[in-house]
Specification:
- It is globular and about 65 Å long.
- The protein starts with a strand and ends in a 6-residue tail after the last helix.
- Strand 11, helix 9 and strand 12 form a beta-alpha-beta unit.
- The chain is α/β, with parallel strands linked by helices and 333 residues long.
- The longest helix is centred in the middle third of the chain and has 18 residues.
- It is built from twelve helices and twelve strands.
- The strands form three sheets. Strands 3-12-11-8-7-6-5-4 form an eight-stranded parallel β-sheet.
- The chain binds flavin mononucleotide (FMN).
Length: 333
């Protein structure tokens, strides 16, 4: 059975990839992912704030000597609070590359297109097979328009594509007015892949202390459907590879992601819960399902369920589906 998959121009043995996270935080864990059956590894991110702090002592242009910024700067992690400083991150890329045979993808995480991006070249030189760029931004400034935010992201991709000789994937949030248009703009900017979607970690309120409680919650597959819809909507409409991230809890979710059109399926929460060997479980689940349907290659699976998104009028079909879904409440037990 042929599960071989192309992602960002890289050939992978199958579609299940370790997503950006501490899953590959050291060499031992990276090797465990490979032994556990991951087809590729995305390393955890190096953050814009880490790099500007090191290079200029500033975070988002805030001068630490200016009293107006004291409390805001105190809210950010200090330079030594991050897992790896920029130099050690580069070293990590180099060492993981030497230790495993599967592709290794570096990750940069930020909001601006400023000088911190120079490090992308060093990540490429350190041996990364590709770079994932996570533009994680909470657009809370009323003066910042959607168009301006989209232009910023596009400009970063244009800049990276003009300087880097490795593929670039862009990890995005779903919170755009017209996500299909954003995807097309990035496709035209020659992004090699789109990673769909970032999860937003929204702080809860602790009623005992009446403060916010920042805590990473692992995902459940309740988050999958939004991703399936958008992967299906973009399949065949952009040249970029499509990676689904968010809400893949087991083999059935992984198969759905491929049916919707994902080239690869990134996983973090499920692997944190079940261990690195879960990649073998995912692969086996896919093989078993394909056998029962007498499918011999992943290409016979990928993108074959379009969730009503293949039509030229996908928006209208989606609206029709929405109306039908609301009418189905009577079937609820
Ligand atoms: C503990 C933890 C650390 C993460 N670190 C990063 C990171 O450094 N960079 C990044 O782009 N995403 C990071 N993520 C997000 C994951 O890559 C992924 O997009 C998200 O967890 C959704 O996938 P899942 O449902 O398989 O967990 C992290 C997630 C978790 C749970």
């Amino acid at each position: 059975m042929n599960l071989s998959t192309t992602y960002l121009g890289l050939t992978l043995a199958h579609p299940f990839v370790a997503g950006a996270s501490p899953l590959a935080r050291d060499l031992d864990h990276a090797k465990r992912l490979e032994d556990g059956g991951a087809a590729a590894i995305v390393l955890h991110s190096l953050f814009e704030e880490q790099i500007t702090l090191r290079d200029t002592g500033r975070v988002h242009q805030m001068d630490p000597d200016d009293a107006r910024f004291t409390s805001m700067l105190a809210a950010y992690p200090g330079e030594h609070d991050y897992a790896l400083d920029p130099d050690r991150y580069l070293d990590h890329v180099r060492r993981v590359k030497e230790a495993v045979t599967i592709p290794v993808i570096g990750s940069l995480n930020g909001v601006t297109g400023q000088s911190w991006l120079k490090i992308s070249t060093e990540i490429a030189q350190a041996g990364a097979d590709a770079l994932e760029l996570n533009m994680y931004e909470i657009a809370a400034d009323p003066a910042d328009s959607g168009a301006a935010i989209e232009r910023r992201i596009r400009d970063v991709v244009v800049e990276l594509k003009s300087t880097l000789n490795i593929p670039v994937a862009v990890k995005l949030s779903p919170y755009f007015t017209a996500f299909a248009h954003v995807a097309r703009q990035l496709d035209e900017a020659r992004a090699d892949g789109l990673v769909i979607f970032n999860r937003f970690y929204q702080p809860d309120i602790d009623l005992a202390t009446v403060t916010t409680s920042p805590r990473v919650e692992l995902s459940t597959n309740a988050e999958l459907l939004l991703r399936l819809r958008w992967i299906a909507a973009l399949r065949g409409r952009v040249k970029a590879s499509l990676a689904l991230t968010g809400g893949v809890a087991g083999p059935e979710d992984g198969i759905k992601a491929i049916l919707a059109g994902a080239d690869v399926v990134q996983m973090v929460s499920a692997v944190l819960r079940n261990g690195p060997g879960f990649f073998k479980v995912m692969r086996k689940g896919l093989v078993t399902w394909m056998k029962t349907r007498q499918l011999a290659s992943i290409e016979q699976v990928r993108g074959t369920v379009r969730l009503g998104a293949a039509s030229d009028d996908a928006g209208s079909l989606a609206r029709a589906g929405y109306l039908r879904t609301l009418q189905s409440w009577r079937d609820i037990d």
